[in-house]
């Protein structure tokens, strides 16, 4: 490595990545007059979740429960995966509550720069001239993985910080004095995102074993292994404040179910071709793929702009070292779905390629090393074969029938042709540069930057097709203005933009991290979706022309959950209680009949009895009877009798009226929980449409009482007469996580001080 007084190539890396990212995102920021939107998950989740989390963190009193994620959810469980551990999110806290859409584009620019810089420091360890690390770092930061995941804002945090773990590992392999850096890198990656961190740990184990394979019989290998394990445990301990409660939460999440099935042993033809496409062609639009699969959200792209997999393949053919072995191992894992499931511990519904950013940095490292010794490689031969392969792939997909039924495999011919053309021309341009002896740093850097900007800008444009930023912002600003009109009721909406950007809470949401018990409630109505909760109509585009509520406003399921207030742009509706105007658009809040959040019942029924009813009558039955099962049955006989299950859809509002009459009094809610009073002439079951969680504690007149899990929600037994009920929420594992984090930071500080002291006395 060339030693210099200052690292000028680091400056080049920063400036190049900054200029490139600014050019890409700056254009769309300008087009949106400062606001930046993409589509689907980004608009409906990333922007709204940031607003909701910010509001919860700045709430008074500060608590651990948020009311506007679904029917309510743990702050940590709901947002730990998305943004609570993100340094970029915490930067946004410094600005106003309406500012996140105006910050998102600039935060994206910052993420790309950070990803470039961290990758630069890692790749720099292996090249003799650090200028080649600049190219590798840009390939990593602007890879197809980043591009195809543009709708997942939080994925880019993971990509930005992951190289630090590899850097720390490499430094400690050379000298154990760098252990504090490795520990901190583990802590940072763990707290940023627990799901990706688990993948990273598995990858690091594979990386280390292959890296040090020739020393595996040496006792120092095992000493290093123990050292890394202890350092890793300490780093995880420092992040336990978020990591521990998150692990407890996901252990009960539907996505944690086993995927260890025979069908996952090998890919079928379509999916295998899709994997190849993700390697050789630029990152595609996940919600609307160009070929093979109409839509796929598995993050299937590891394309390196300009180079693709070409130089990584050349490196593997020529060299016989650990990097070559790692490339081969990762390639084998890539083509077998069962091996890919190792990265998610054989859990989850899908086989993701969301570990491919780790493959990307290995490919980027190999590409940098080839560039540094370019004369040692047969560029023309390999590039010609590579370009020909892409051409054959393109022609086969376009002109050959997939099967006898001629099943459709091309969905966007123009985009597919453009992607193939870019990949082929990239290989040919490398051949031309080699032939004219210009395959040198400056020309290659220029081409790399151009290709990075082109592919990222192009796919971002495809993502944004049909997106109306101004219409979105009108809804966003309206949602920010919506207030809680009555604590006992919710807005009749599953539109995140309306119910998560301000104080309002809705009757459903577009999220995969709601309370696990909410899924149990949904299953009672045959809704088994993982990312959408009980919305009859949920539009992911969230454009101005979509239904404001995202639900059928008189659906009994919504009325049962307190959906009393409907947001509409129809000024002719009756019972308008609020009016708002945002960016020239007018919105009205209509009041309709709905059940309160808490009401008493005199009867109960079992789940098996409920499921015998037609799905459209189940919510009506639950307006009359609490769902009780198992050991709780014998405990409720003194408070309720068994329900006969007779219900009439024609009497829907009669049932709603009964719940209103039997509602609890003085219902108040905040981020710590909720409270109310009761005054019934006899003992009753009181049912709350608030998701059950082990973190809830309930007291009746100051004395702790048992909470009954009822249809995924909560019920309690209340004696006759006047009583006060108080529910407080504390995230399971959070207190222990705080203690573990504090102790771990103290140990980390002591360890660092000892190293400094030893260095001084030596």
From TrEMBL:
Q: Which residues cross the membrane?
A: 9-30, 75-95, 102-123, 181-210, 226-250, 296-317, 323-346, 355-371, 377-397, 418-436, 442-463, 736-757
Keywords of this entry:
Membrane, Transmembrane, Transmembrane helix
Q: Does the keyword Transmembrane apply?
A: yes
Q: Which domain of life is it from?
A: Bacteria
Under what name is this protein listed? Membrane protein YfhO
Origin species, per record, is Ligilactobacillus ruminis DSM 20403 = NBRC 102161
């Amino acid at each position: 490595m060339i030693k210099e007084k200052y690292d000028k190539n680091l400056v080049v890396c920063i400036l190049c990545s900054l200029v490139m990212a600014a050019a890409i995102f700056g254009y769309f920021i300008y087009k949106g007059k400062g606001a930046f939107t993409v589509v689907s998950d980004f608009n409906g989740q990333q922007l709204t979740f940031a607003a909701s989390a910010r509001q919860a963190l700045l709430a008074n009193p500060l608590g651990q429960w948020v009311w506007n994620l679904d029917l309510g959810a743990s702050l940590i469980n709901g947002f730990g995966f998305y943004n609570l551990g993100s340094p970029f999110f915490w930067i946004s806290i410094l600005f106003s509550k309406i500012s996140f859409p105006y910050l998102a584009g600039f935060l994206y620019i910052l993420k790309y720069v950070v990803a470039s810089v961290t990758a630069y420091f890692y790749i720099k360890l292996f090249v003799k001239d650090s200028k080649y690390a600049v190219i590798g770092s840009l390939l990593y930061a602007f890879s197809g993985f980043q591009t195809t995941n543009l709708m997942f804002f939080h994925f880019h945090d993971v990509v930005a910080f992951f190289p630090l773990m590899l850097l720390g590992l490499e430094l400690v392999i050379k000298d154990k004095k760098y252990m504090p850096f490795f520990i901190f890198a583990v802590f940072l990656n763990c707290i940023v995102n627990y799901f990706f961190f688990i993948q990273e740990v598995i990858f690091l184990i594979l990386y280390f074993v292959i890296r040090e394979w020739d020393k595996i019989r040496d006792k120092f290998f095992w000493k290093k292994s123990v050292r890394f394990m202890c350092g890793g445990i300490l780093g995880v301990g420092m992040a336990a404040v978020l990591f521990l409660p998150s692990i407890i939460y996901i252990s009960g999440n539907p996505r944690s179910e086993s995927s260890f099935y025979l069908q996952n042993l090998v890919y079928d033809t379509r999916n295998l071709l899709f994997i190849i496409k993700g390697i050789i062609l630029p990152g595609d639009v996940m919600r609307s793929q160009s070929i093979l699969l109409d839509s796929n959200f598995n993050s299937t792209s590891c394309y390196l702009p300009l180079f693709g997999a070409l130089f990584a393949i050349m490196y593997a053919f020529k060299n016989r070292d650990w990097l070559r072995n790692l490339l081969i191992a990762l390639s084998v894992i890539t083509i077998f779905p069962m091996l890919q499931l190792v990265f998610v511990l054989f859990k989850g519904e899908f086989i993701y390629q969301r570990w491919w950013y780790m493959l990307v940095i290995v490919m980027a490292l190999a590409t940098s090393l080839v560039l540094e010794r370019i004369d040692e490689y047969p560029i023309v031969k390999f590039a010609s074969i590579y370009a020909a392969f892409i051409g054959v792939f393109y022609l086969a997909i376009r002109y050959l029938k997939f099967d006898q039924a001629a099943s459709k495999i091309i969905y966007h011919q123009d985009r597919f042709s453009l992607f193939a053309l870019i990949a082929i021309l990239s290989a040919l341009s490398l051949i031309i540069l080699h032939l004219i002896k210009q395959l040198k740093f400056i020309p290659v850097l220029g081409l790399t930057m151009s290709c990075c900007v082109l592919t990222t800008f192009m796919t971002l444009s495809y993502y944004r097709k049909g997106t109306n930023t101004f219409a979105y912002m009108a809804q966003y600003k309206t949602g920010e203005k919506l207030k809680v009109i009555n604590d006992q009721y919710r807005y009749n909406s599953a539109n995140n933009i309306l119910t998560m950007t301000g104080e309002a809470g809705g009757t459903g949401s577009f999220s995969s991290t709601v309370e696990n018990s909410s899924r149990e409630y949904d299953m009672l109505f045959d809704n088994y979706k993982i990312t959408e909760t009980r919305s009859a109509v949920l539009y992911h585009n969230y454009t101005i022309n979509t239904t404001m509520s995202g639900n059928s406003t008189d659906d009994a399921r919504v009325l049962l959950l307190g959906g009393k207030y409907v947001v509409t742009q129809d000024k002719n509706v009756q019972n308008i209680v609020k009016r708002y105007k945002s960016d020239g658009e007018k919105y009205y809040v209509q009041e309709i009949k709905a059940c309160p959040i808490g009401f008493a019942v005199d009867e109960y029924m079992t789940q098996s009895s409920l499921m015998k009813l037609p799905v459209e009558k189940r919510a009506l039955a639950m307006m009359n009877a609490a769902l009780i099962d198992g050991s709780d049955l014998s405990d409720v006989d003194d408070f309720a009798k068994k329900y006969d299950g007779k219900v009439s859809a024609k009497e829907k509002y009669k049932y709603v009226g009964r719940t209103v009459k039997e509602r609890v009094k003085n219902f108040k809610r905040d981020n710590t929980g909720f409270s109310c009073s009761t005054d019934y002439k006899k003992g009753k079951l009181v049912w709350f449409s608030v998701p059950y969680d082990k973190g809830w504690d309930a007291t009746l007149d100051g004395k702790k009482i048992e909470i009954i899990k009822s249809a995924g929600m909560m019920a309690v037994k209340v004696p006759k007469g006047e009583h006060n009920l108080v529910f407080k929420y504390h995230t399971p594992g959070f207190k222990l996580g705080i203690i573990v984090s504090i102790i771990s930071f103290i140990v980390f500080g002591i360890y660092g001080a000892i190293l400094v002291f030893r260095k001084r006395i030596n």
